[in-house]
Amino acid sequence: FTHITAAPADAIFKTKADYAAYNNKNKMNLGIGAYRTNEGKPYPLKVVKKAEALILNDKSLNKEYLPITGDKEFTRLAARLVLGNSVDLNKVASTQSISGTGALRLGAEFCSKFLSGKTAYFSNPTWGNHFGVFKEANIKTAKYTYWDPKTRGLDFAGFVNDLNKAPNGSIFVFHACAHNPTGVDPTNEQWQQIATIMKRKGHFPFFDTAYQGFASGSLDNDAYSIRYFAKQGFEMIITQSFAKNLGLYNERVGGFHIVCQNQQKAKDLLTRVAKIVRPMYSNPPAHGALIVKRILKSSQLFNEWNEEMSGMSNRIIKMRALLKNALVRLKTPGTWDHIVSQIGMFSFTGLSPQQCRVMKSKHHVYLLESGRISMSGINTNNVEYLAKAIDDVVRNVQ
Ligand code: LMR
Q: Is the overall model pTM greater than 0.85, yes or no?
């Protein structure tokens, strides 16, 4: 193996490891997007624990292989959750996936095999792993304008311009809600305009949904973009994760959905997806899907989940207000309204890479060098400390 050298570390997981390795009582983990309580602890949802207890006592369960495309009841319920009544689910080819990243990997392979020659466009910036996943599938990637550093919001005119400029029939990857890393989403009216241009240009929509219900606290509001496109009759791909909204990070459970024009096409495409899955990982694991199924099938558990989810999303919204107010009180140079107008797990602070490095080395605040912070690492005990650290780097570091 003399010819093999070490690979560069993954920025998000390295930040998590750096945080874990450092010993300091003030340290803050604002890197990886994983929910924390106000005490800074991981939060296994109570409803998940309940579902697991039911599974443990269910004598009818066994450890047989699942079908290649996963548990059919699970995939149907997962498709219903994201698509609502926007489309006949018989027209949707649904596969259980290894969480959101596994769904993206299936989507990228599918595009590589059946939409070959097309370029996949991603928002600038996007979740770093998007490019990794599509590169593995040998798809040409490009960026579309998204973030406006001046307003710290959406550059909608630039976005529209890039939709219009891209060659007809390009693949556009969208974050359905709670854009990662910026926390900036198009409004419903803007999604409608995007759909109109996508139709005219014959572009192919590819929706990545990792935060349904987690962003606004409402599963329906957070699915608006996807359901609107489905109602307009688009063929499209949806990649779905249950990591954040059910706190099932390490269960790796998600859905991969292809919305088709008719039932026969959906049946045919599912056989094609099975051909991608079988040599890749054969078939999916069952436990995460069993949990999701239990919760989606029972109206009582479903309601309990919704309550817990809005608890998580409200806590984050409160932390946004506390952080902004603390920065305003400190008279930290600049405007900080974007902290409260952004949505979901992350805030794109606008801090420079050098400022982020000093946040880490001097203040022991672990964040990504892009300036992204995970809002879930903030709580009532550390928000003032964070505001003071931001204040220091904004005043003293370029
Ligand atoms: C993140 O962006 O921090 C999360 O989605 C975790 C990951 O896998 O990168």
A: yes
How many angstroms separate the alpha carbon of residue 374 from the centre of ligand 1? Answer: 10
Q: Is 12's C-beta closer than 6 angstroms to any atom of ligand 1?
A: yes
Catalytic residue numbers? Answer: 127, 208, 244
Closest ligand 1 atom, CA of 31?
A: 3
CB 28 within 8 A of CB 369: no
The answer to whether residues 390 and 327 touch, using CB atoms and an 8 Å cutoff, is: yes
pLDDT at site 398? 87
Contact at 8 Å (CB) between 135 and 141?
Answer: yes
Q: What is the pLDDT of residues 12-63, one digit of tens each?
A: 999 999 999 988 889 999 999 999 999 999 999 999 999 999 999 999 999 9
Tokens coding 124: 């600038």
- The whole-number pLDDT of residue 116 equals 85
Ligand 1 pocket member 29 (CB < 6 A): no
pLDDT, position 347: 95
How far is it, in rounded angstroms, from Cα 286 to Cα 96?
A: 10
- Confirm if 343 and 182 have CB atoms less than 8 A apart: no
Q: CA distances (Å), 345 to each of 10, 54, 65, 91, 177, in order?
A: 19, 30, 35, 32, 11
Residue 245 Cα to ligand 1 midpoint, Å, equals 13
H/E element holding 241?
strand 236-241
Which of 16, 30, 32, 376 to probe ligand 1 with, by most ligand atoms within 8 A of CB?
32
Q: Which residue in this structure is represented by tokens 């007809």?
A: 168
What is the number of H-type helices and E-type strands within the chain?
Answer: 14, 13
The torsion angles phi and psi of 176, rounded to 5 degrees, stand at -60, -35
Rg of the chain in Å (alpha carbons): 21
Q: Which residue's CA is the nearest one to ligand 1's atom 1?
A: 33
Pocket lining: 180 vs ligand 1, CB cutoff 6 Å: yes
Residue 385's pLDDT is: 97
- Summarised one tens digit per residue, pLDDT across range 224-262 is 999 999 999 999 999 999 999 999 999 999 999 999 999
User: Which DSSP category does 42 fall into?
Assistant: B
CA dist 11 and 21 (Å) reads: 15
| Ranges of the chain whose pLDDT falls below 50 | none
Output the pLDDT for position 299.
Answer: 98
Distance, in Å, from the CA atom of 12 to the CA atom of 102, rounded to the nearest integer, reads: 17
- Say if residues 226 and 209 touch (Cβ distance below 8 Å): yes
CA 11–ligand 1 middle distance (angstroms): 10
